[in-house]
Amino acid sequence: MRHNLQSRNKQSRKKLALLGASVAIGALALSGCGSQKGQGNAEAESGSGSDGEVTIALLLPESKTTRYESLDKPNFEKYVAEANPDAKVKYSNANQDATQQQQQVEAAVTEGVDAIVLDPVDASAVSSALSKAKAKKIPVISYDRFFEGADYYTSFDNKKIGNLQGQAVLDGLKAEGVDPKSGPVWMVNGDPKDPNAADFKAGAEETLKAAGVDIAGSHDTLDWNPDDARKWVEGQLQSADEDPIAIYAANDGTAGGVLAATKKAKVKPVVTGQDAEVDGLQNILRGDQYATIYKSIPPQAEFAAKAAVALAGGEEPEGSTTYKNTPTDFVEAKVVTKDTVKDIVGDQIKAEDICTGGVKKLCDDAGVK
Ligand code: GAL
Fold first, then answer.
1. Which residues pair with 317 in a beta bridge?
2. Is residue 157 within 6 Å of ligand 1 at its C-beta?
3. Separation between Cα atoms, residue 200 and residue 282, nearest integer Å
């Protein structure tokens, strides 16, 4: 679908490098990024208002993982306003419903927005709606989860996140003095419709297999639902010959489901997660979960916001790299354990949110303030 992009009067569009480096923390220099209504969307231009008045649709996949509503959305809005104070953001959340998201994309196309920023529940389910956007020359940005035909993509290197997760499992075993080859490891992966979940799984598998780990069970968690994760682990604990030495969970939500099952069965494998959510960090401080992955959301939202404003104004963001032929910017992620929770508290994660009730004392012990 890249040819659609090529057909978008490419010569008339200014190339725009969002950042020279692949690590995104810091200020973005965006010179020559003035936007004019309609350049990014010829058909919506008729009857347009003053220069700079553009509408950008932001479509996020769900609201159970806290990052989307509490970090991605407000940061995106903030950086759009910074790049163009006259730009409007039209926000929709699909609540994990692919059909609903398809309708949301179609509504944005019908409305004639100037750019669509989409984090798909199921990329295959929105492809026809995206073709309609292409037909109307509305630029589309792939946010966090990749889909074909995007004009720009920003995310984390998701395979690398999987590698980090696999390494965290190995480190957790080492910390307990457990030989990674001494028993079975189970994998509780993310939603099979989410392309990132496949990358997390592939990366984690690669790292675990390289260490000679026996992956004795693997489950794709439907809709990232913690309850589905819990039920699978409960069933496994009943039927498997041997209890696991570790359970890889693709995010903190599914790790919560895993822990509900292991606690009930009174087994204590090494458990890991992702997203550095409050619950996950509390589980880490309690010693129930070994690690999570911290993703700094503001730089990702900033990349997307600046690219959206640029595309809506008829400019073409370049990105510091390419992913599947799409201009891309990646943000760096890192592993967090009990020892490093203190290093990530700040703007995104507040100590007062984690250090409540019984966790207060654990925060003191771990130097989290
Ligand atoms: C992934 C995303 C993760 C996590 C997960 C659950 O695609 O990269 O950060 O939030 O979805 O929604």
1. 16
2. no
3. 23
Q: Which residue owns the Cα nearest ligand 1 atom 7?
A: 196
- What count of residues does the chain have? 369
The pLDDT of residue 347 is 83
- Residue 19 confidence (pLDDT): 46
* CB of 194 closer than 6 angstroms to any ligand 1 atom: yes
According to CATH, the superfamily of the domain at 8-150+296-331 is Response regulator (3.40.50.2300)
Q: What is the pLDDT of residue 15?
A: 52
pTM of this prediction exceeds 0.90: no
Q: Which CATH architecture has domain 158-295+337-366?
A: 3-Layer(aba) Sandwich (3.40)
Q: Which residues of the chain carry a pLDDT beneath 70? A: 1-51
Which of 353, 231, 339 shows the shortest CA–CA distance to 291?
339
pLDDT at 330: 98
| Residue 195 alpha carbon to ligand 1 centre in Å | 10
Q: How far is the CA of 220 from the centre of ligand 1 (A)?
A: 14
DSSP state for residue 245 in the 8-state scheme: S
Residue 116 Cα to ligand 1 middle (Å) = 19
